[in-house]
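Figure-free illustration: sequence to structure, shown twice.
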Amino acid sequence: MKILPFFVIIPLGTAFLISLFGKRIKNFADLLANLGTLSLLVFSLYSISEVFTHKILVYKVGGWIPPIGICMVLDGLSSFMLVTVNLVSFLVALYSISYMQRYTDKPKFYTLFMLMLAGMNGIIVTGDLFNLFVFLEIASIASYALVAFGTEAEELEASFKYAVMGSVASSFVLLGIALLYSYTSTLNMADISLTLSNKSNGMIVNFITVLFLAGFGLKAALVPFHAWLPDAHPSAPASISAMLSGVFIKTLGIYALCRILFNILGLSHQIFFILIILGIISMIVGALLAIAQADIKRMFAYSSISQVGYIIFALGIGTPLAILGGLFHLFNHAIFKSLLFLDSGSIEYSTNTRDLKRLGGLNARLPITGVTSLFGSMSISGIPPLAGFWSKLIIIIAAIQAGYFGTATVAILVSIITLAYYLKFLGFAFFGKLNETWFKIKEVPWTMRLSMIVLAVICVVSGLLIMPLFKPFLQSAVNVLLLGKGYKEAVFAALR
């Protein structure tokens, strides 16, 4: 349990040291950021074995016993999310060594990057609802600054719009927490669940649930709360676009929503139905808007809205198989969407444009970028035997088993539309005749290529997560959600 504070201490300490010495010592920021993210990945992988051994671990901050004191909790869902977040973060930090040289102040970038990572890790491990809000704000404020990092008019406008929408979301969340505290007189998640189980869930709990759905739904960029995302992602540096789409919207949106709805407030048939509707609408709207885009990153941003729809739809079905498919797709989407945004960054790095109409034939000059883009595009489109196929297949089978035949058909049709716009991306960018403008361009530096290659390999092999040898990693996360409000008994048992 003593490893839990390090998921917050390491990124905060790294951010502090980089801000102090980043400009004074050459390459210090690159080295420290990559060592910090690598150590977090190692701790995350170690947490898997701890969860297998102990099921749940509780760290009492300052030695104070909850609910009086603050605690950190590690269970199967926390471990699953920590691995996902810190794996992507390490590869993005490695990619940024070369990519961020085109920007003016790399130490500031890494400082904000590590603060954002500290916030995401804090959200995952905290067992206290107000601390969840504090970490959410740390991650959000850092992301607002990172979206505006290029300081051009487009970036500043997108960041301002994102900050306004994010502040509205945070207000919903804070109001929900305040009302929940006034109703239960506690902020510890397990204790809130215990108190609610001894009270009748009246209109106040339903109203709080709606507030959390709106707040975290906005953070997850679910339709109709999605307006900030298509502007924020194209404006941010590719490294941050990969983080925002890959892990940020899942941690601040999907994970936080799941933890509160499944393990604290409990789910009703009405909430399950709302999640299904929000998921289906997001799937359709995101896909239809993506297919019309000529800006690569804008296309990928709308694609993220569509794929998040798959995850929420699966969680709304609520069966064990559906939850397995939803969490599996969450991990897969973190990998292939991060890869695709890094690929878009490599294209822009070499050609200085993201406009598909100006590209063509880039496979001849950027072969690694082309091949990794192919793997990412085919995986997200659900082409076998890549990982995206298996997670989408599980979700569709779960929908059919639960009797949602119409929505299962919609999920299949949306996947076909997804394939269409990713074929458009590949065709316009990498195939056809090479534009004379790009005759002299070269493949991107090796650190950028290495990150893309590793993510592409994971796109191929992560399908093994549903095989018996590796399935416990995914199943332990599923079991936490299936446990529902039994989460409180698990936490208090671990404390004893």
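We now fold a second protein in the same way, so the two outputs can be compared directly.
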Amino acid sequence: MTHHADIVVVGGGPVGAAFALALQASGIAVAVLESRERETVVADARPLALTHGSRLIFERIGVWDLLAPVTTITRVHVSQRGGFGRVEMTAENEEVPALGYVVDYACLSAALSQVMTVRGISVEYGARVTAVHEQQPAVECNGHKLGARLVVVADGGVVDGLAPQKSIEYHQTALTGFVQTDTPHCHTAYERFTSEGPLALLPYNGGYALVWTTRTGRAEHLYKCVPHEFLVMLQKEFGSRAGTFTGISQRARYPLVLRYAAHIAYPSVVVIGNAAQSLHPVAGQGFNLGLRDAWELARSICTAPVQELGGVAASNAQRARRRFDRYASIAVTHGLVQLFSNDFFPLRAARGFGMTLVGSVPPLRDYFARRMIFGLRG
């Protein structure tokens, strides 16, 4: 068996790449295995919402200044269709430059790939990992067995036999696209809860990135209908707060399922990012949670001797470190879907009172906002 590196990272997407870069100061030999070819990784053009906390991580690993264009979110407006109550959060109130940012996934991937190349991190593209072995830490990749002190899995496609997955079907589909309006977005993001799921508009370049969650049958119709019909239905569902919708492009859809690993750390294998959990897009927490997984793991590795990589104590510490943030994020996003994806009048009224309370009591509003920005550890 070939000893490939101290740490082998399975998955060279943004979470795996950020983890590898965060280890640079440690002197630990890291090898990244990515199943896609490099040209495919950096050609995946789609918007990605980052919190201010995620920006701080990208600044620390020397990537943030390479990202352009970046659209800032300085105001978030949360409401429910057919009911009263709203919450407004602003960067000024939270004393941060922005509540969040919308970046292009391809741009982020290209920046991470560039920095890994400059810093001499070994990245093998087209590396298809078919198995991860926990007892003697190793991965099977392209017909070869590669050993390491620790295997970090950031790609959810290879963990089925390693980390048992729990899943919940939402029977919803997220329809995404880019919409134009006749009114400037003024760096405002909207989250509007409807009886079939949340509808989000994120400021992106001169328009909005749309994430419209609805029942699967309706999403299929929305995906296939002509642009004019689509815009009429979107206007009816969202209202006129963002102006009149004038254009839609690059529609796509994907089914929504909550998946999460029952265990994220073993003596010689740790799962992070999509390998650890895949969340509902409500509140935009999934990627940001995965990035925090990577940062916390890298920080703990950098402060420990290399001989302790893959030890039981390190495994237990990682589980303990990530337990609250991880399960709280899963519970909050899942709870929001269950609470808001219905039109039951007493519950709608209770939601309205709750949103009014949060929106009108600054300490409550600020607590909620900062948990969304920096994570749910407390």
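Summary for the second example: The chain has a mean pLDDT of 88.
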